[in-house]
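Aim 2 progress update. The chain analyzed this quarter is reproduced below.
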Amino acid sequence: MEKSGERKRAPRGEKRKAPGEGSPDAVGSPAEPEDSPTVADAVAVEAGAEGLRERKRRETRAAIERAAISLVDELGYDNVTVAMISERAVVSQGTFFNYFPTKDAAIVGLGLADLDAEAVHAAYDRIEGTPYHATLALFLKVVRDLDWTSEIAAMRARLVAQTPALMKLFLDGTFGFVSEFRGILTTYLEQHPERRTCPDELAPSEEAGLVVAEALEAAKFALARATADPDASLPEAAEVEAVVRRIVG
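Predicted structure tokens:
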């Protein structure tokens, strides 16, 4: 039994703590029990929770897409509604609209676009050449970043290739961000007049409009070819640009 007032010895091999270390009298917060969660534990738990949330989001999105595509395959595009897609995916219509703005977006697998103007401007700074070449390169990157390998992608590619209306929907939906993109390019050309191609003939907004329109059609051509033949490789911007130049002279 330890006598009152007698200092307890540290077990052999255990380092004695410095004065105030691990005691309520230390400057700062009192010591925590050895089994209490640490900051590292909290970060790990939060990261795990974020990972679970992200996985749940991916699963929900995939369920909605699969429901939309399978229903169109069974019933035809005109006969499918958001309510039917939500019911088959076992989600509420409110949840549906958290992932996709329209029925069409769910069918072609396109969520809500969120363009970062600074990131787009930085991309233009990195890509050499005319604004048209840079815009076409960025649009083709959008195509490359699409899901081309999953089961859902295979189902969608088959439907799109067989249905002209869905092909148009897919092409238009893939580049549904162009209106906002046009404004971002206009701002960039205003801030970087040295990158402009026709500064004497066109206002920045006019030049941006023509650049985006022409690059959009060229990128849609490349996307349509890739969708019709998934085994074909997507051409580079320079290759598509060369074809366009031969056409327009």
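The chain has a mean pLDDT of 80. The two ends are 101 Å apart (CA to CA). These observations will guide the mutagenesis experiments scheduled for the next reporting period.
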